[in-house]
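Q: What structure does this chain adopt?
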Amino acid sequence: MDEGIMGAVLGLLLIAGAFLAYRIEKTNTQLKHEIQLGIEKLEAKAIPTFPDIDELMDEVQGIITETIGQMRVPTIADNLGAILQNWAQIKMAKEMNAMQNPILPDSGVFDFEQNVES
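A:
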């Protein structure tokens, strides 16, 4: 009777071992498939295509040509406008300076001895 039980236990162990080997192989196959899909997704996203250096040079030259083509020679009105703007900016700066520093004399030199409290 011991031999029959030993045979049954050995058979069950053999079946359990075969089942475990089957499950390990099936899991291994699934993992390989998932890894391959992940690699394919990464390869599709990893490196975008860059244009050639010649295409980049042509594009930059086009931008430069377009920018220079829109430029024009300054006219007398442009020069007079710049003079008027400069005059107005200087006048405004003097007025702002007078409002912020009423203690300072018009010469722009601050006399320390006159304004120090004793």
